[in-house]
Specification:
The chain is of the alpha/beta class and 330 residues long. It has 2 domains: 200 residues, Aldolase class I (TIM Barrel, Alpha-Beta Barrel), CATH 3.20.20; 92 residues, no CATH class. It contains 15 helices and 10 strands. Strand 7, helix 7 and strand 8 form a beta-alpha-beta unit. The radius of gyration is 19 Å and the shape is globular.
Amino acid sequence: MGWVSGATLTAATAEAGGFGILASATMTLEELAQAIAKVKARTTAPFGVNLLPNQADLAKRIALLVQESIPVASFAGAPSAAVVQELNDAGITSIVTVGAKRHAEKMVGIGVSALIAQGGEGGGHTGSIPTSLLLPQVVDACAGTGVPVIGAGGFYDGRGLVAALAYGADGIAMGTRFLLSAESQVPANVKELYLKSALTATVVTEAIDGAPQRVIRTDMIDALEKSPAVLRFPKAAMNALRFSRESKTSLLALLKTGREMKSAQDLTWAQVALAANAPMMTKASMVDGRPEVGILPTGQVVGAIGSLPPVAEILETIIAEAAATLVSLR
């Protein structure tokens, strides 16, 4: 949800009774502070901040969360045990997204507070195990530990919420459903492309940044997949420089982050450079409104969504559908 889950969407979600999370990976530290202030100006409800586990200024971001009394820090990638301990000591709940049972067991072992089990249907970087198989396995892995499990990947309505609860989850997380809401600041022309997409419109590709990522199949994706890997590297390197300028991250800090990613994830320098492709190509679509040169991260559920209601209406509808579904099962 980088470039998408900003202050407006986060505040609307929190105010409506959900738990909004600011996507800070594409923000500078100063922009994150400003976004937190904007959310607080619009709601008194709690909300969280998503962090990159290898970000060069991670310590400063955590200090900001402590200063602003932000109750939750979430991670799409695995944080270190030291980071989790720091958050625990500060009284901040840590939530980590996992795509396999063994990852869940490892995260529980280092003391994370909660897990999001995202199945392969999920958008953006995702795994290969479907939610229906992953979620109960992660729930079983957390049995007796007191670690709550949230289901993600393919959820958009009340029936899905009930299904997740039946698998043993404590709730659901949704990205695509909130991306396609009235408060989402994604350009109208891009939202229209999403609404026209069928359930079969997505593809999981490694051509963007070297890691499996679910996006809508477009001419850009086809071109990337046909391009030899050796030709993708120069473009990725240029994107790294662009990301450095636009995020106001020094090249030294970018190299430090890359070195930590390389060490933690056993990546080559080519793969580290390719990792710059995703945020810049996502920005082209989600901020600049130019999907012909960008990418459209999404869950498969995009094909089941056909409207852009306000966040409050989305949550109200899900709750009503879940209640009706539970009644029908009695």
